[in-house]
Write a structure and sequence with these properties.
This protein is mainly alpha-helical and 459 residues long. It contains 22 helices and no strands.
Length: 459
């Protein structure tokens, strides 16, 4: 491998490290030019950034926010990835390690997202998709076949919303294996694009079903495959929306794992970078619909809240709400239909609950927003209601209202026991730990209810 353009020890300079941590490349370019005699045009050739933008950065008039641009600078100048906190794909992965291993996960996602030279990693993700049955050979497929895939995917989706994903996940995974095999059939270019989208949508739903039973590596594999399939359908607005949604859902997963174990700060770091990838895609794709853009700001609020940045979280939520309020629901695409008013209340409530980890004054906002979300979701979204009830009970405890916490917590425990999901039990475990610091017979009864539920599920 050819050495990078920087002289030995260049990246060890504290000033350079500070600039890189802040993604401020102007001082880096200036110091690199002074140290090596390189020209701005040479830096442009190495990084793919136009020379005028290099000049503007050197003069302090430009910053780079797009993930693709930062990735190009990192590759071109051979910047150590840990200084940027950004995954720089490298082909030097141990082939025995899973591509969704935490050390390589973000780089594998970047490979799927950008179609980079890390094709080997994406191929290994595809190879890890479920097998076990021999797909039926199909020499040719048409539009009706794709519609059938979409209808069956919708059935899996509705089942997971109402009952949790555990019951249907085996069927969804087996069906994904069958549908994946259709890629070898003859089809028109238009049908091929529609099939790629249908496969992506099915893999996304299967990822959520697997996530429901806490198979987090499995969910990551499926969601990375979703991104790869959606990229093959680039040009269709659904592909861009789905890509951004999945990146944000993976951030959701990372923050869920942080919620289970608040001491694991790497999960916040991981979520933040996934959110940045999504933000870069949003910046690059003006066709992304307004509700998905709003969801991006909401996840940004969760990341900021988990990092304890209350002002930033509030600003992100304000941006999300401005987008939602300015969107005519009748004009939103059908595939963004899950972003209902109840969902937006949940987004606000989750951000407030994360902020209440450090400042319990935010718990009252969490109570108000989570209550509105639960009231807005019908039985068709029973999984969401169950998860939110556990969070709402935690928020009530932090407001100093153990009676309401017990009432909501009992209902949440009953909901979880009626679902096919282990995630709900993990949320009850968090509630039990929170309740351990509170006295009173109502709280004691709630904890006993939770212990009975956990014992019955052998969680």
């Amino acid at each position: 491998m050819m050495p990078g353009p920087a002289p030995p020890g260049f990246w060890d300079d504290p000033a350079i490290r500070t600039a890189l941590a802040e993604l401020d490349f102007g001082p880096v370019f200036s110091r690199l030019i002074a140290a090596t005699g390189m020209t701005q045009q040479q830096i442009s050739d190495l990084t793919g950034v136009p020379q005028p933008r290099i000049s503007h950065a050197v003069c302090g008039r430009a910053r780079f926010a797009k993930y693709r641009t930062i990735l190009g600078i990192a590759r071109g100048l051979d910047i150590p990835p840990e200084l940027l906190g950004m995954p720089v794909p490298s082909p030097a992965h141990d082939p025995q390690e899973s591509p969704v291993d935490r050390r390589h996960f973000l780089a594998t996602v970047a490979a799927a997202l950008f179609g980079s030279s890390m094709a080997g990693d994406v191929e290994r993700v595809r190879a890890l998709l479920p097998t076990g049955t021999t797909p039926v050979a199909r020499p040719r497929i048409g539009a009706a076949d794709v519609e059938s895939v979409r209808a069956i995917t919708d059935g899996f989706r509705r089942s997971a919303y109402a009952n949790g994903g555990g019951l249907g996940r085996a069927g969804a995974l087996a069906y994904l294996h069958e549908v994946q095999a259709l890629g070898d059939a003859v089809a028109t270019p238009a049908v091929r694009t529609e099939l790629d989208l249908a496969v992506a949508e099915l893999a996304n739903v299967a990822g959520w079903m697997v996530y429901d039973v806490d198979d987090h590596d499995g969910a990551r594999r499926l969601w990375t495959y979703t991104i790869d399939a959606a990229r093959r359908a680039a040009g269709d607005p659904r592909a861009a929306d789905l890509t951004v949604t999945v990146l944000l859902d993976m951030a959701h997963q990372a923050l869920y794992l942080h919620y289970l174990d608040p001491t694991d700060r790497t999960r916040v770091h991981e979520a933040t970078h996934l959110m940045r990838m999504a933000s870069s895609e949003i910046a690059d794709a003006p066709e992304i619909c307004a509700p998905i853009r709003g969801y991006g700001h909401a996840v940004g609020a969760w990341c900021a809240a988990a990092a304890g940045r209350a002002d930033r979280a509030t600003a992100e939520l304000d941006d999300a709400q401005a987008i939602y309020l300015g969107t005519n629901p009748t004009e939103a695409p059908a595939w963004a239909g899950w972003l209902t008013p109840a969902e937006t209340h949940y987004q606000q409530g989750r951000a407030a609950l994360l902020l209440s980890d450090r400042d319990t004054r935010h718990a009252a906002t969490a109570v108000e927003s989570l209550t509105a979300a639960i009231d807005g979701w019908g039985h068709a979204r029973q999984r969401s209601r169950a998860m939110a009830r556990s969070m709402l009970a935690v928020a009530y405890l932090r407001t100093g209202d153990p009676d309401e916490a017990a009432r909501v917590g009992h209902a949440g425990a009953d909901d979880v026991m009626a679902l096919s999901t282990t995630r709900g039990y993990r949320m009850l475990d968090v509630l039990d730990r929170e309740a351990a610091g509170h006295a009173g017979s109502d709280v004691a009864g709630l904890r006993e209810h939770i212990r009975t539920a956990l014992a019955g599920a052998a969680v």
